[in-house]
Write a structure and sequence with these properties.
Blueprint lengths: L2 H6 L12 H19 L2 H8 L3 H8 L2 H24 L6 H18 L2 H9 L5 H27 L8 H17 L1 H6 L8 H20 L11
Helix pairs in contact: 2-5, 2-7, 3-4, 5-6, 5-8, 6-8, 6-9, 6-11, 7-9
Length: about 220
């Protein structure tokens, strides 16, 4: 049973029993991924989670604050893992890149809602998008670019725009899990086992690292 499904089935807690807020937040994340921010109703979400509307509003306030809480709950994990990798002085720069890609793809497998949510939010100039950038994307960029610049300066990888690498890893690597219907039609295991996820993550990492490490293709005369 998925975490979101567990949240939807937990029912109303007995009197005096503490609500598992991690289940509430995972259920909220699933709803925002499925319906988008504007299409999600806190009242309908509370009904699906089996808790009172008053409980959600008392605990989180507005729908936007619930969105922030759900995103922070899950993004804090990948943020801390990326920072540990990026700031570890004992790791080679190329190893950090490869291990980081593997981590991100496996994280996307565990939380496919995030790529779906970013598909909603990435095209909207909203406080929510700015929050994601300021909380996760921005703080990770500096230490990762420091690693990438050393690799480029040492001739170990070709220059690559940071945005290009970001989307290849986050959207490209995670799309297999965010687009579960399409990936099933393509023959991907449903649901993927731990070994399936690891193989996919390592394949994505190896393809990206090999592509960055390869000599640039010589362009034909007159080609831009």
């Amino acid at each position: 049973m998925t975490e979101a499904a567990s949240a939807r089935r937990m029912g109303r807690p007995p009197t005096g029993q503490e609500v598992d807020h991690s289940l509430l937040l995972r259920g909220a994340l699933a709803a925002f991924a499925e319906n988008g921010y504007d299409g999600t109703s806190v009242r309908e979400l509370s009904r699906q989670l089996g808790v009172s509307h008053a409980l959600l509003t008392a605990r989180y306030g507005s729908k936007e604050e619930l969105w922030f809480a759900a995103m922070e709950h899950v993004l804090s994990r990948t943020k801390s893992s990326w920072l540990r990798l990026a700031e570890d002085p004992g790791l080679d720069d190329l190893d950090v890149l490869r291990q980081g890609i593997i981590h991100q793809v496996m994280f996307s497998s565990a939380h496919p809602e995030l790529v779906r949510i970013m598909n909603h939010e990435g095209a909207i100039d909203s406080p929510r998008m700015h929050y994601i950038f300021e909380y996760v994307i921005g703080p990770l960029r500096l230490p990762l670019e420091r690693r990438l610049n050393r690799l480029i300066a040492g001739g170990r990888i070709r220059p690559v725009p940071y945005a290009t690498l970001h989307y290849l890893v986050v959207q490209g690597g995670g799309a297999l899990y965010a687009s579960s219907v399409e990936s099933a039609l393509l023959g991907a295991p449903q649901p993927p086992g731990e070994d399936d996820v690891r193989r996919h993550a390592e394949s994505v990492a190896d393809i990206i690292v090999a592509g960055l490490s390869a000599a640039p293709t010589v362009k034909a005369a007159g080609e831009r």
